[in-house]
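Quarterly update from the structural biology core.
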Amino acid sequence: MAQTRSMSGVPESQQFRDGKPTLEYARQMPKTFASMTNEQVLHFAELSTPIPEACRECIVRDVMVVDQVEYDEAMKTFEEIAKTNREGMTFAAFPSFSGFVVAGSAGFISIPFVFNRGLVEWFNEAFVTSEMPPEQDLETFLEVGAASWGWMEPVLGQLSFSILCMQFARSQMQNLGFRPYNDFMKNRRARYLIAKYPKYDPEFLSNYSKCDKLIGPHKMAK
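Predicted structure, tokenized:
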């Protein structure tokens, strides 16, 4: 009877001994995505959260077939595709960058506007016009904070409540798998990449494009 062999090249009867992998079988374990079988690469590329290296490998192998070239030459084509996929991403990531800068800056700026006497008095004269406490009640930063809190509490309290509501809404959107801006930009980028390279498999291109980050490129493993 013919001996059954696995894709690893080691007969099934020699893969495990006493419930543990044999040395011969362990030697066949792929250590890079390039050494994986087509089935393994497709499996990792089609996960609910695709692995970028597997998506890359799908494109490379598709390029090899379409262009009739070897792996290293196909990798050069993939690098061009990856570069194209990053076009315009600085602009796409601008809302995230600006939100980070504005939120961080507002957090730091709010501190002196509550506890620094000079800024508190200036803000009061320019925007509040409230009567300030006497001189002896403004000698420490805590006393200054007590004086400014009368008009700063409604502003900071309302902003804090608004942010809390937005955070809750965002968490529910994530539970629903709904990320409007991020999904829109990734779908738009995927369509552009498919149109730019029409001769390659559109699903492979789309999977790779969508698993790549907007802020910065994913650092690929081998």
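Residues 53 and 197 are 19 Å apart (CA to CA).
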